[in-house]
């Protein structure tokens, strides 16, 4: 980091935090009150038509929130929320039609309308999210789900009412106004809950997954598991909305579970403004109400206008109308670099359940035997044998294309290698996903700084602790508790004074340091670092060297360092391993390797390092 | 029992048309207009037929107003798009009943749209005349139907095919309430009359790939084919693919209308259709109706059909019921509706049978030039027990 | 025998529908959700030909050209700004599909349109009467597949495309104009979609939503195929046959979702699908 003046003092960031916390609270309270007021006073003000339309729009708005949480926040584009809504509504209508209607059965219907979509959501999540699945794939599956559900409804004959739907059952005994108020209160509750959740530490995990799924996995989180849970939970929420809808409208029809409705939800969310919660709510209310009032006049034109607006919006204003509004606020809000920042405190060392006792220094932390990796006929790595013990700092050197980064990947992803054995702390990593390997005590820093671009420095660091300190789903922790080593990195690099700054404003070097600090936050026993000093200034390099030495020599970690800067390697390594054309050609002390002829040959023949 | 004759009214209106348009509100019409809500699929699947339905309703309103309206009050149409589906229908019904505050709803809609609208009809307590053929058994004190149900459409077809000597039947349909309802009744009726169903297959409602079904049909040994698919694409693709595969069995299509059959050209030749209205009905009322439609809409005319004609007649039925009740009060109109008879293009129609109507059914066969020739007609076919609990 | 013919021709039709989508997915790494719209446009090209009284054979090149031209415009104005936002590209092409559908509705109405069959009637083939046109689709699929093989192996564009498929960064570093390759591929893919629409028109009806029904099955096939045309052929044969078998012996209703559901299950168990075939 350059010696440019620090952005703000630690003490100066305190008032700024209060300044931001206050409007947030006001926003929450304001939103809640406004929606509640709409719900309770609406029947006094509106005519019957508006009441009817708004009751439905408010239920749809609840669905738009679930779409926003999945797509806006977690980055999972879904057309499938209509399916869960439909299943919830049909479960309700089928119980009320075929079994009967009583308070007990209404309650049963509610349970079914929540549990069945939740189970379905889990199944859909399992289908959509696995190690190696792509975002497209999940989206296409989300398109498939409503199609299958609608097909089942059509095929259901009298049970589901087929194309005619079900009508004439007795729902809750509420008046029109009663349903309006109920829908309004539910929407207000869900909006506030969603707003609280997305600002909480647990909610930030969703944004982290959207930003950088790989980094999440290498912070010991399982993006797949989190997304599956999220899909199930939001399936349940959509099912609840379905229960409400089946009661309020008195009719269910196949189209409420169709992908066309699913896309409409996405359109509302996109136009309103993704990742804002309020945008989608207003988008759903506004567009659905407008279409009820206008589409009679010009049915085809209306859809054409909405479609064209949607395309233009995606290209020009991807964050929707809400972005225009918040952008205005943001400018008035002052320096964006001075965001909220909790004070740093030192965390007690994490317990490491099931890990081999650290005192056993003789047992290798990493043991690799005959490891190989090939792409088709092309062999990238072969016959790699390597053992690393606690306290060692091993540098991995070799020309470009020698297979260094590939080796790192084979050590942190149980499915990556093509042959051979790899054990960490005595455990085979066969079939383990990165998050499970991280749980064994491994931390990996990537060659290109891998951090979360939409979070602040403090939030990034908090993400690194999520696998250790369970994040709260409703609050943001008062303090930022990190291991001493991580705090030291922050101090040495000046990042401790920039905790509230958005990561997107950091320099390249600062991002590298931040990522290192995040890896150290995991309290790993084995750290893999891929060119941690690339592009850093001499001072920064020295800082990182000092940190690494401390971690290995004093705290008993082991580290593998991929590095091109041979001076740096010589300074800090306890051992050097040379990789050439996919083979491990040398493994010895610094002196032995640096003076060996082999290395000289490789480097003179293999081009510049 | 009151009997309203439409065609003298037509003759009168044809004469006084120019006058009526010129003098506008010069009639002895006092009081507010009686508002008729028409929720219809201007967009979505029904948008193909919806314009013809609206035109028929417009003609009926114009003719009634030309005669001085109902109880001295003019009729007024309020059309709303139901997007051919449930969600759109909810909006359309809410808008018509609670915002426009119409006195009655008269329309042709999909079953899903009708069902979705019914709760609003019950809450708003307005009479609702449904003018589309459907799978039957939709019952509400507010709901009247003047179009056919399976019990009326299927027997003419099966009777005809039986007489031609076909005893083994294959049934093909789209998997939705109408398709299933029609074919289930057909299977029952075939069994009752001594025939045999050798196979039945359904495709999803939007399905258009009939390959496997056609192969099954060809190997089944069937002597006749009865189909009931969703309108539009499924219907057209089935016929095309049947012809493409060289199937030349006697073929009754319960879902095709005259216009589609004509547009399909040579592929449709020989198809049997069963309906309560075909343009070729030879009656004074039908001729007058067709002339009036041509005069009113000219180039813009959408060919009248089995969905638009019931719409036309239903407006007259409502007008007659209001005359009889002496008021637009819902309870009184509902009591009068089953008792009034309208003589329209389809003949005499009274919705006297559990809110449904006995109808004259026509069996037609598509000719090589696309026209439909009436093979035989069946008078006063009873809709059966549609709503025994009403 | 009929069953075997049904299976092969169904696979051929699926291949025709999905090939344009695969070309775009392979090179641009985005899924073109407007694929259904181009299919529909192709169908309407056949309608226009029929109305103008031109021989239906001409509708095939016309549909390809119109599809490619519209594809070029789409690539330039909608897809290109969104290359680094692939999920947004999905949404934008989806929205474009809505717009195209509505424009067609405004222009031609919602009605089902009729086209003349290129090859009407049935022929006696291997002892059974079989639809001549379905047999023709088999030939068309072989021509398209063969054309792709030639294009990829024998032309500069093919070579560039393969380079981009394998490693775009490297291709760019080697001085390939990847933007041009992308534009050309997108035009080719959209053109193929239009061609598929025209080819389908004798089998299905032409209406503003005709493309939508094919979308999900085609998406899943492309996912299962990875970036390989051989993979697509295998996926079409396998899942197309499964669809015919399920439709014939179990239920045509289940048959309609067989392709998509089976593809999804296969991908779940074997994430690489048939890409190494």
Describe the protein.
- The complex is a heterotrimer of chains A (609), B (390) and C (277).
- Chain A has 22 helices and 14 strands.
- By secondary structure, chain A is an alpha/beta fold.
- Among the domains of chain A are: 48-259, no CATH class; 391-414 and 431-605, P-loop containing nucleotide triphosphate hydrolases (Rossmann fold).
- In chain A, the strands form four sheets. Chain A has a six-stranded mixed β-sheet with strand order 9-11-12-6-13-14, sandwiched between helices. Chain A has a four-stranded antiparallel β-sheet with strand order 5-4-7-8, with helices on one face. In chain A, strands 1-2 form a two-stranded antiparallel sheet.
- In chain A, strand 11, helix 19 (538-554) and strand 12 (558-562) form a beta-alpha-beta unit.
- Chain B has 390 residues and is α/β, with parallel strands linked by helices.
- Chain B has two domains: 3-148 and 280-352, Response regulator (Rossmann fold, 3-Layer(aba) Sandwich), CATH 3.40.50.2300; 150-275 and 363-381, Rossmann fold.
- In chain B, 41% of the residues lie in helices and 21% in strands.
- Chain B contains twelve helices and 15 strands.
- Chain B has helices spanning 6-23, 50-66, 86-99, 111-124, 150-163, 177-192, 211-218, 233-244, 258-264, 284-297, 308-325, 330-336; strands at residues 3-5, 34-40, 75-81, 104-107, 128-130, 143-145, 168-174, 196-203, 224-228, 251-253, 272-275, 341-344, 347-350, 359-366, 372-381.
- In chain B, helix 2 links the parallel strand 2 (34-40) and strand 3.
- Chain B is globular.
- Chain B starts with a strand and ends in a 9-residue tail after the last strand.
- Chain C is an all-alpha fold and 277 residues long.
- Chain C is built from eleven helices and two strands, in the order H-H-H-H-E-E-H-H-H-H-H-H-H.
- In chain C, strand 1 and strand 2 form a beta hairpin.
- The radius of gyration of chain C is 18 Å and the shape is globular.
- The model of chain C has no long low-confidence stretch (mean pLDDT 88).
- Chain A binds chain B through residues 47-49, 52-53, 56, 151, 154-155, 157, 161-168, 176, 249-256, 261, 291-293, 295-296, 299-300, 303, and chain B through 42-43, 47, 79-81, 83, 85-88, 90-92, 94-95, 98-99, 110-112, 114-116, 118-120, 123, 135, 138, 140, 175-178, 180, 204-205.
């Amino acid at each position: 980091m350059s010696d440019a003046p620090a952005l703000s003092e630690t003490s100066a960031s305190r008032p700024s935090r209060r300044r931001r916390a206050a409007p947030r609270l006001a926003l929450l309270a304001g939103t809640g009150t406004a929606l509640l007021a709409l719900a309770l006073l609406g029947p006094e003000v509106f005519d019957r038509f508006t009441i009817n339309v708004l009751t439905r729009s408010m239920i749809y708005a609840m669905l738009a929130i679930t779409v926003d949480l999945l797509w806006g926040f977690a980055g999972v584009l879904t057309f499938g929320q209509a399916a869960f809504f439909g299943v919830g509504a049909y479960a309700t209508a089928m119980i009320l039609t075929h079994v009967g209607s009583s308070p007990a059965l209404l309650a049963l219907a509610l349970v079914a309308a929540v549990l069945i979509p939740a189970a379905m959501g889990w199944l859909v999540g399992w289908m959509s999210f696995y190690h190696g699945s792509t975002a497209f794939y999940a989206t296409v599956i989300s398109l498939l789900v409503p199609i299958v559900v609608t097909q089942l409804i059509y095929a259901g004959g009298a049970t589901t009412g087929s194309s005619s739907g079900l009508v004439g059952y007795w729902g809750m005994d509420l008046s029109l106004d009663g349903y309006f108020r109920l829908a309004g209160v539910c929407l207000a509750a869900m909006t506030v809950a969603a707003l609280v959740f997305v600002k909480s530490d647990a909610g930030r995990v969703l944004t982290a997954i959207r930003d950088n799924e790989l980094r999440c996995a290498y912070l010991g989180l399982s993006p797949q598991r989190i997304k599956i849970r999220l899909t199930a939970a939001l399936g349940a929420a959509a099912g609840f909305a379905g229960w409400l809808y089946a009661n309020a409208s008195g009719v269910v029809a196949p189209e409420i579970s169709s992908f066309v409705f699913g896309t409409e939800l996405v359109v509302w969310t996109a136009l309103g403004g993704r990742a804002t919660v309020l945008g989608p709510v207003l988008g759903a209310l506004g567009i659905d109400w407008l279409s009820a009032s206008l589409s009679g006049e010009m049915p085809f034109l209306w859809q054409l206008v909405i479609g064209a607006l949607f395309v233009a919006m995606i290209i020009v204003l991807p964050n929707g109308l809400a972005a225009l509004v918040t952008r205005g606020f943001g400018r008035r809000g002052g320096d964006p670099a001075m965001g909220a920042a909790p004070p740093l405190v030192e965390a007690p060392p994490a317990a490491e359940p099931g890990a081999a006792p650290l005192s056993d220094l003789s047992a290798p932390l990493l043991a690799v035997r005959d490891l190989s990796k090939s792409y088709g006929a092309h062999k990238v790595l072969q016959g790699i044998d390597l053992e690393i013990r606690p306290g060692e700092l091993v540098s991995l050197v070799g020309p470009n294309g020698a297979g260094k980064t590939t080796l790192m990947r084979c050590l942190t992803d149980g499915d990556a290698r093509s042959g051979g054995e790899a054990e960490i702390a005595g455990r085979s990593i066969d079939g383990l996903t990165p998050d499970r390997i991280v749980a064994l005590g491994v931390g990996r820093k990537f060659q290109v700084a891998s951090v979360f671009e939409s979070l602040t420095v403090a939030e990034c660091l908090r993400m690194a602790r999520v696998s250790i300190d369970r994040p709260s789903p409703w609050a943001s922790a008062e303090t930022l508790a990190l291991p001493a080593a991580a705090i030291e990195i922050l101090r040495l690099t000046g990042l401790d004074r920039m905790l509230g700054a958005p990561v997107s404003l950091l320099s390249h070097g600062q991002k590298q340091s931040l990522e290192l600090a995040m890896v150290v936050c995991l309290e790993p026993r084995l750290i893999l670092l891929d060119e941690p000093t690339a592009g850093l200034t001499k001072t920064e390099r020295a800082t990182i060297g000092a940190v690494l030495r401390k971690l290995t020599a004093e705290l008993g970690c082991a580290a593998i360092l991929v590095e091109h800067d041979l001076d740096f390697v010589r300074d800090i390594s306890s051992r050097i391993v040379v990789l050439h054309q996919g083979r491990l050609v040398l493994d010895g002390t610094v002196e032995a390797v640096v003076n060996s002829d082999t290395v000289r040959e490789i480097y003179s023949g293999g081009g510049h390092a | 029992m009151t009997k309203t004759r439409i065609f003298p009214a037509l003759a009168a209106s044809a004469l006084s048309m120019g006058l009526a348009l010129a003098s506008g509100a010069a009639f002895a019409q006092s009081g507010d207009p009686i508002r008729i809500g028409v929720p219809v699929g201007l967009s979505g699947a029904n948008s193909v037929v919806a314009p013809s339905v609206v035109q028929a309703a417009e003609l009926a309103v114009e003719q009634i107003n030309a005669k001085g309206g109902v109880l001295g009050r003019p009729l007024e149409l309020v059309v709303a798009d139901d997007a051919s589906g449930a969600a759109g229908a909810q909006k359309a019904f809410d808008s018509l009943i609670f915002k426009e505050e119409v006195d009655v709803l008269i329309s042709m809609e999909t079953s899903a749209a009708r069902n979705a609208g019914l709760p609003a009809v019950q809450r708003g307590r307005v009479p609702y005349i449904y003018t589309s053929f459907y799978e039957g058994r939709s019952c509400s004190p507010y709901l009247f139907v003047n179009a056919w149900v399976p019990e009326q459409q299927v027997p003419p077809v099966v009777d005809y095919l039986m007489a031609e000597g076909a005893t083994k039947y294959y049934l093909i349909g789209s998997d939705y309430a109408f398709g299933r309802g029609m074919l289930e009744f057909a299977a029952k009726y075939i069994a009752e009359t001594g025939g045999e169903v050798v196979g039945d297959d359904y495709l999803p409602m939007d399905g258009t790939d009939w390959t496997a079904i056609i192969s099954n049909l060809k190997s089944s040994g069937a002597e006749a084919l009865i189909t009931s698919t969703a309108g539009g694409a499924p219907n057209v693709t089935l016929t095309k693919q049947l012809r493409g595969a060289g199937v030349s069995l006697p073929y009754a299509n319960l879902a095709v209308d005259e216009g589609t059959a004509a547009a399909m050209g040579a592929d449709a030749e020989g198809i049997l259709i069963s309906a309560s209205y075909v343009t070729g009905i030879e009656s004074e009322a039908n001729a007058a109706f067709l002339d009036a439609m041509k005069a009113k809409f000219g180039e813009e005319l959408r060919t009248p059909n089995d969905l638009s004609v019931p719409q036309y007649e239903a407006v007259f039925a409502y007008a007659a019921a209001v005359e009889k009740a002496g008021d637009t009060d819902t309870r009184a109109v509902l009591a009068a509706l089953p008792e009034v008879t309208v003589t329209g293009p389809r003949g005499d129609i009274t919705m006297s049978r559990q809110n449904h109507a006995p109808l004259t059914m026509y069996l037609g066969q598509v000719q090589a030039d696309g026209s439909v020739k009436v093979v035989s007609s069946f008078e006063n076919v009873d809709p059966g027990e549609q709503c025994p609990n009403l | 025998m009929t069953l075997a013919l049904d299976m092969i021709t169904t696979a051929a039709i699926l291949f025709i529908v999905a090939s344009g989508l695969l070309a775009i997915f392979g090179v641009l790494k985005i899924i073109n959700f407007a694929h259904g719209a181009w299919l529909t446009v192709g169908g309407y090209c056949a309608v226009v030909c029929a109305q103008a009284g031109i021989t239906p054979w001409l509708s095939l090149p016309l549909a390809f050209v119109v599809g490619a031209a519209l594809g070029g415009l789409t690539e330039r104005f909608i897809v290109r700004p969104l290359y680094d936002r692939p999920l947004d590209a999905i949404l934008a092409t989806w929205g474009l599909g809505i717009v195209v559908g509505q424009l067609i509705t405004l222009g031609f109405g919602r009605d089902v349109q009729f086209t003349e069959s290129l090859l009407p009637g049935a022929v006696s083939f291997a002892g059974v009467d079989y639809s001549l046109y379905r047999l023709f689709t088999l030939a068309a699929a072989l021509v398209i597949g063969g054309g792709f093989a030639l294009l990829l192996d024998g032309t500069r564009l093919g070579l560039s495309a393969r380079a981009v498929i394998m490693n775009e960064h490297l291709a760019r570093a080697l001085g390939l104009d990847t933007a041009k390759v992308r534009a050309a591929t997108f035009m080719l893919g959209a053109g193929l979609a239009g061609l598929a629409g025209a080819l389908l028109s004798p089998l299905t009806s032409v209406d503003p939503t005709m493309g939508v029904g094919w979308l999900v099955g085609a998406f899943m096939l492309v996912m299962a195929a990875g970036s390989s045309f051989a993979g697509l052929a295998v996926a079409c044969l396998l899942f197309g046959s499964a669809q015919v078998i399920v439709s014939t012996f179990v239920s045509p209703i289940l048959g309609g979702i067989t392709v998509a559901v089976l593809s999804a299950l296969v991908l779940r168990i074997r994430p690489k699908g048939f890409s190494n075939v």
